[in-house]
Amino acid sequence: MGAHAMTQPPECLERPERSEASEASDAPREQTLQVGDVTLAYRLLGRGSRALVCIHGVGSYQEAWDDVAAALADDFRILTFDLRGHGRSSRVKGRYEIDDFVTDALALADHVGFTTFDLAGFSLGGLIAQRLALSHPSRLRRLVLLATVSGRTREERERVLARLAALQSGERGAHYDASLSRWLTEDFQAKHPARIAYLRERNAQNDPDCYASAYRVLAETDFGGFIDQIRMPTLIVTGEDDQGSNPRMAQFMHECIVGSQLAILPGMRHSILIEASGQVADLMRDFLAADSENVGVSEGAGSGA
User: Fold this and answer.
1) Which fold is adopted by the domain 29-289?
2) Which residues lie closer than 8 Å to 154 by C-beta, 6 or more apart?
3) Partners of 236 in the beta sheet?
4) Pair 30, 88: CB distance under 8 Å
5) What mean pLDDT, rounded, does the chain reach?
6) SS (HEC) of the chain
7) Buried (b) or exposed (e) across 269-297, using 16+ Cβ within 10 A?
8) Domain ranges of the chain
9) Which residues pair with 117 in a beta bridge?
10) Is the CB of residue 165 less than 8 Å from the CB of residue 132?
């Protein structure tokens, strides 16, 4: 695909009154898995037989994947889950490490019978996906890195570490307000006030200490010196105006990972799962369909029982 700019307008589902109760009738049943001292909340979505694991970003939750998952539901069996410290998973206090998240993801994949699988990660989820691809390459078929980081410059490192320091000092409301402007365009915010209110409501549910622990992993982790060791087919996508996971980083990853594909979404900022879910789903479907053999889900698996 090479460097690719999408020209179609982004698709987004407005959720003016989104709540767990309103979606309970058609939503898949959320389940839990105990991994050590952590309880992980997860769901299995989709009707397909090809295994796909999706990992969300810092301060987010598994429902961030819902629009993309709905578009891929016919072809994939999709595992989404709340990272430790997020959503309805355990609010684990203390220091997090990138390998804690990798261990959690693999435990869930094993539990639901995903022997090999496609892996997609957004932002912090993309860092977790990079680490998993480097440490457990035999588990993965194809890799999708969305709005994630690698090869930060000194200035980029200083900026994200300054945000971490402000967050750790207690400036959490200001941190989120500033993040919204980096994540979503003004046009989207103006046209979707109910969605913005929902995002603010969900953010307010975050545990501040857990958020800071996860953000530290995002701020201090960089696999730029190792990413050329990733060997599986990889799709890299980011927004043209994403400040933190910028096109320069995406191009760097594209040049380092042999045979990778790159897509830069015009006019988009960081939250492409929300503002450009249709484009992301189309890119993922086309990329993953290039290797369309239905494998990865063990016979009889999928209930999580």
Assistant:
1) Rossmann fold (3.40.50)
2) none
3) 145, 262
4) yes
5) 87
6) CCCCECCCCCCCCCCCCCCHHHHCCCCCCCEEEEECCEEEEEEEECCCCEEEEEECCCCCCHHHHHHHHHHHCCCEEEEEECCCCCCCCCCCCCCCCHHHHHHHHHHHHHHHCECCEEEEEECHHHHHHHHHHHHCHHHEEEEEEECCCCCCCHHHHHHHHHHHHHHHCCCHHHHHHHHHHHHCCHHHHHHCHHHHHHHHHHHHCCCHHHHHHHHHHHHHCCCCCCHHHCCCCEEEEEECCCCCCCHHHHHHHHHHCCCCEEEEECCCCCCHHHHCHHHHHHHHHHHHHCCCCCCEECCCCCCCC
7) bbbbbbbbbbbbbbbbeebbeeeeeeebb
8) 29-289
9) 140
10) no
Q: What is the pLDDT of residues 170-204, one digit of tens each?
A: 766 665 566 777 789 999 999 999 999 999 888 88
Size (the chain), residues? 305
Per the CB < 8 A criterion, the answer to whether 133 and 105 are in contact is no
When pLDDT is cut at 50, 70 and 90, the band that residue 16 belongs to is very low
> Does position 22 have pLDDT exceeding 70, yes or no?
no
Contacts of 104 (CB under 8 A, 6+ apart): 35, 38, 40, 81, 83, 84
Q: Classify the C-alpha dihedral 67-31-146-261 as positive or negative.
A: negative
CA 272 and chain centroid, separation: 10
For residue 141, which amino acid is it? Answer: R
Distance CA 64, CA 60 (A): 7
pLDDT per residue over 61-112, tens digit each? 999 999 999 999 999 999 999 999 999 999 999 999 999 999 999 999 999 9
